[in-house]
Amino acid sequence: MKTAMQELLKHFIDEWSSPSDYWNPSKVIDKVESMIEKEKEQIIKANRQGRCNDCPIMYSNEEAQEYYNQTYNQNK
Fold first, then answer.
1. Which of 40, 55, 59, 71 could link 63 by a cystine bridge, Cβ 3.0 to 4.6 Å?
2. Is 72 in contact with 43 (CB distance < 8 Å)?
3. Which residues contact 61 (CB under 8 A, 6 or more apart)?
4. Three-class SS of residue 1?
5. In sequence order, which residues have a C-beta less than 8 Å from that of residue 71 and are 6 or more positions away?
């Protein structure tokens, strides 16, 4: 599985690899925002899995979401 950033890079290379390609700022922003959401989901999933490998308790989505917010939303 590709990370969100790898997928974003591939998208930019595939869509805008030629100097003559027109960069539409709103399309770029839309793509980046969608990939940020995907990255967030990947981080939350990894946090849940990583914290639970050897424990009998499954951490909730809310706990993983809280981890994400504390770690990555510090400037908001």
1. 59
2. yes
3. 44, 48
4. coil
5. 43
**16-25, 34-43, 63-72 — which is least confidently predicted?**
16-25
Nearest CA-CA partner of 11 in 26, 38, 31: 31
Decide: 10 and 2 in contact? Cβ < 8 Å: yes
pLDDT bucket at 1, cuts 50 / 70 / 90: low
Coil, helix or strand at residue 34: helix
The C-alpha atoms of residue 57 and residue 21 are separated, in whole angstroms, by 51
Please list the alpha-helical segments (H only) found in 2-60.
4-15, 25-52
Q: Which residue has the tokens 């917010």?
A: 69
